[in-house]
Each structure stands twice: as C-alpha cells, then as structure tokens.
C-alpha cells in the first residue's frame, strides 16, 4: 500500500497549500470570531478553503489555529494518499477500501521529537499561552481539544487507546474531558477509578490528519489506534515515551500534555455546554446535571510556532468534511451483510444516509434499508435512510430529493422503526428519556425506488441523458460556461 507524502500536520498543510485553496486570517479574535469565520467559510461553494489563523488577538504571531483542514474532497484525498481527480463517490469507495485493507503497524519509539522543543512544568504550566478559541456564543468555556488525540493505557492488558474527546479549559492547569458513556478511553479511566487511583493520560492538539482520523474512528477493544495510524501511513508513527506517564506521545504533534484524571468522586467539574455536531448545545453537564472528569495537567510540550488543529463542530449546513468516509465503511458493511448490486452509499450528515441499488428482486430495497439500520456505521445516528435506484447519484441532494418526491408514496413507502440506538446529544430525545438513560430514538426508511412489481410501467425519466448533456456543454462552451464535473 502506498505511503502518504507528509509526516506531520505542518507538512500536510504545506502540501495542501500547493494543490488547493487556503487563506491566512490575521488579527481574528479567539472569542467567537474564529468559530464564526470558520462556519461562514464552510458554507462557501463548491469547496471551503483551509483557514490558517495567525496573530490572533491577545497572542503573539506564530501561535496559530488551523480550521477546515479536511473540508474539501481534494484535501481529504491527499490526507489518505488517494488520487486527487476522482468524484466524491469514487473517493469514498477508495477510502473505505484503503481503511479495510490496512494492516496494523506498531508505533516506533524515538528518543526525542520536535514536540519537546518547548516544555512547561510546575508553576510554568499555562494552557492559555495558546490562543484557545471560544467557538460558539453559549459554550461553557474555551475548548483546546476538538481535533485532539487523548491517549491512555488499559491497566490490565497494557493496550493503549487513542480517542478524540472534547477538552475544555477550566484553569491554566485544569481541563475538562467529556467522554460519552461507553467510550473506550472512559472504560480505561474507570478501571483506575475503581481502585481509587487517578488515570495517567496524555493528549495532543495538532496531530497529522491520519492520527486525527484514527483517533475518532472506533477500533475494536484491544486494537490500538496508534497501530492503525501506522497502517494508514504505510510506516510507523514516531512516538516519544512521555517523561511523566510513560505513555506514547506522537513526536511530531504540535502541542501535547501529560497529566492525570482523578476519580470523579475526588475531583470533577461542570463541563460544557458545547455547540455539538447536530447544531445544538449539548453533552457534558448540560441536560444531565452530572459533573464531568477533569485532567490535572503536569506538563505541556509544544513545537515552536505551534498550530492548534480546530475541528470544532459546526451545524450540519456548514460541511466540515470534504469526504464522508464513513459512507464507504457502510458500503462495505452492507456488502458484508449480503446486499448485492449497491451502486453508491452517501452519508450527508450523520442523520441522513442514502443508498443506491440496482433492484434485482422484490424485497431488495427493503433488505438494504433494514440492513443499513443495523450496520455498526449507521446504527447510532442513521435517523433517515433513503433507498434510491441506480440512476440517482446518492451524493447529489438534488437527485435524492427528486427521488423522494416522485418515487415515494408516503402511506406505503416510509417505514418507521422505533427504539433504536442513539446518544445523549440527540436533540429530539425527550428530557425524561435522557434522564432515565434510555438513549434510543426512532428511524425512518424511505423506499424512494420505482416499485419493483411494476417498475416497467413506471413513467420513464425525461431527463436528458448524461452523454448528450456532456456533448452540448462541450459544443456550446464558448456561449455558456459550465462548472467542471
Ligand atoms: C471532532 C470530533 C469530536 C468528538 N468529540 C467527542 C467527545 O467530546 N466525546 C466523545 O465521547 N466522543 C467524541 N467524538 C467521537 C469519538 O472520537 C469516537 O467515538 C471514537 O471512536 C472514540 O474513541 P474510542 O472508541 O477509542 O473510545 C468526537 C469525534 C470527532 C470527530
Ligand atoms: Mn479505541
């Protein structure tokens, strides 16, 4: 498998600058402005530029924040070492194949790395030396950890987990850590807490895009995300042994901390609210009243002129990822479940998933819809699942809406399934359900396909065939200019 061309976040940023759109933003306020401009730029069409914030208000030049890193299909393809000129649907498929075929490569310990260029310990520790943004007006505080990697070690097996969990700044040396129930990083903390001990922890802010991707993908318990990064890169991830915790810390991270998470009975703190990916404030103490774990920082390490990787959630109308790679993963899972003749899978926003099939037999669409509902990749958030025919491009909302408005008879072609897996941040979950920890909600499957039994009598599409469209566009391009694709 091919290796990726870059070694760390800054090399990847430089590679992006060479192939794609980006802007430097100077003098922005860490308070709301970085968040607001990122949200506004994410809505730029066709693809948002990468934003590099420098000389942020109250901070010296060189203390930087990067946002919209992976917001174009080109940058997402580059991050995985994929060709840059493919359609979104093809890229999603290629990305999934790469992820599926990855063989784990363990990290390689090196004696030192650039992350140790600057060290703060003891009284010197101050996380607000970095221009940590306040992203959304009603956020409970400034969040340094959005595109982060949180690392801890299972005390029983020695297995090292790495996960992306949001991290709030409470004080110069105290952070809030929100890990949703069941997260592997939380399970590890719990084992220490059960013995009345604090859990040693490390975290990085500003890893390369594959380290970020591995951190937020759920690997089976016991298979380390650090080895998955190596596999994706095609060579081991270099790590240094944390001087305080002994945990592996990516040597080329922009910023890293070491510290410990005390048992919540001994120390915990209100956390959030935080504007989350569904487009609402949620999680943490919000809605449940539960205080959340904290990280007591013991040391901060950082490179010269560090870059915080900002991956703060935006509402779903401001797309932050150029490629919904999970779509390709779902595609594989559906094929694994025996669904044949899938021509495309596209996840528009975790709550809206479209699957295109070439119908081969009566019941094929229903089989695909119900399988999607149960697949691990869609089970948690797949509120609307739409099955379309092969003539519909599932990545095009225009085409999907056309299928939904013309091939669905609401009385018969929408199926509701109740009691499905969800999460506490589901905005529509009634307070009593959330409080009783019954984190379930319903799903709707739209069978937006020509009914199989009378598909031959279904009115023929009057849309111009793609070949003729291409031909006339080419012929009249001096009179009318069309965007490429
Ligand atoms: C930008 C971003 C932020 C995230 N924030 C959180 C969070 O605050 N809490 C959480 O439990 N999961 C969060 N997640 C999801 C986890 O990273 C994901 O479930 C991952 O699988 C967790 O790792 P684990 O399976 O090793 O526990 C976030 C994901 C992304 C992409
Ligand atoms: Mn894990």
From TrEMBL:
A GO CC annotation given for this chain: cytoplasm
Limits of the 3-octaprenyl-4-hydroxybenzoate carboxy-lyase-like Rift-related domain: 112-309
GO molecular function, one term: carboxy-lyase activity
3-octaprenyl-4-hydroxybenzoate carboxy-lyase-like N-terminal domain location: 13-87
InterPro entries reported in the protein's UniProt record: UbiD, UbiD-like_C, UbiD-like_N, UbiD_Rift_dom
Residue span(s) of domain 3-octaprenyl-4-hydroxybenzoate carboxy-lyase-like C-terminal: 338-441
Name of a matching Pfam family: UbiD_N
PANTHER family, per the entry: 3-OCTAPRENYL-4-HYDROXYBENZOATE CARBOXY-LYASE-RELATED, FERULIC ACID DECARBOXYLASE 1
Name recorded for this polypeptide: Decarboxylase UbiD
Organism, as annotated: Paenibacillus abyssi
